[in-house]
Amino acid sequence: MTDQPDVTPKQQLDLIWDYIKGFHAVHLIAIGTELGLFEAINKATEGITAARLAHMLGLHAPYVEIWCKTGCAYSLIHIDETGHLRLAPHMDQLLADKDSPRYIADYSLAATGFYTDDFRRYPEFFKSGEVFTFQQHGPEFSAQIGTMISGFHKLIAYKLLPSVDGVAETLAAGGNILDVGCGTGGLLIQVALANPTCRCVGIDVDKHGIEQAQANIVAAGLENRVSVVLADGSEVAYEDEFDAVTMCEVLHELPLEVRGEVLAGACKALKAGGVMLILDETYPSRSADLAAREYNLAIQTAFNELIWGNIVPTAEEQDELLHFAGFVRVERSQIATYLTALTAWKL
Length: 347
Ligand SMILES: C[S@@+](CC[C@H](N)C(=O)[O-])C[C@H]1O[C@@H](n2cnc3c(N)ncnc32)[C@H](O)[C@@H]1O
Fold this sequence. Notes:
- The protein is α/β, with parallel strands linked by helices.
- The protein folds into two domains: 9-107, Winged helix-like DNA-binding domain superfamily/Winged helix DNA-binding domain (Arc Repressor Mutant, subunit A, Orthogonal Bundle); 131-345, Vaccinia Virus protein VP39 (Rossmann fold).
- The chain has 14 helices and nine strands.
- The strands form two sheets. Strands 5-4-3-6-7-9-8 form a seven-stranded mixed beta sheet, with helices on both faces.
- α1 (9-35) packs across α6 (105-128), α3 (50-57) crosses α4 (61-73) and α8 packs parallel to α10 (186-194).
- The longest helix is centred in the N-terminal third of the chain and has 27 residues, at 9-35.
- It is globular.
- The mean pLDDT is 97.
């Protein structure tokens, strides 16, 4: 007896073909992003032919034509009767507008870039159990991660933080915030831009991230209010200093043995009544939920960050960590289908 659904061999074959199609679609998006094809189609408000597109970008026309037709087959691009191309609905935000919080094309570059490099290591690492940490990947990787999740920084700075009771007022009144695992400083910069008198401090163990954060802060002209420190979150000694602490895509990156200490340090760093905001993935607790849509990103992250040594915590593990660290009230909400926002308060 098995509780598996009744499916035909043909359905299973289609399932695999759909995955292979997804692989091609990711490459098509990465190529289109690298060559500026989506941006060029988006700018041509009256539509543009493949031949004109190739000419404009100085590309080989027969290749561009097949790229366009494939993009149409994958519902990313629309072609009309006269052969004029336009982006499919909403694809402008997702694939062509780098300033949109919904811009997601950089994920495809990561997938065909460093994720693919890592996946090539998997067979050997599965035998050896070796780890290739986030910090070992190097400066370009740190930069790419910061760019790839820049939409999350805007989401936190402009939507999630202001929606927590009292935080907008405190930051507007010159309050301060600590970002643990700040990476290249994207969140610090967005919070500082959104709150013109607040002060922001970031810490991270990744020296590449911290170096780039310093440069990004200076480039944004924010060095008077925003600073970063190369430090391990489990070793910082701030006490009753910050109105808020944030962690964006960091909790699942912390080695298991330091998770408790990092969260306890974050709690200690907060003033009484201060708030911690975590945006991260949550791994399903039940095997029946492994395929549920809301866990897609968590499942993907746990797999593509496996050899970095990362383990994505379940909801129960997140709650236990936060309570053990000294937070009194923990609230969770599902954000943009795939993410969890955890808000926790210090007494
Ligand atoms: C996915 S990145 C996110 C970076 C940044 N929060 C952002 O949103 O761009 C995770 C970050 O957590 C940092 N990290 C991991 N373990 C840490 C620790 N023990 N203390 C401080 N930072 C840590 C990594 O170095 C990395 O920069």
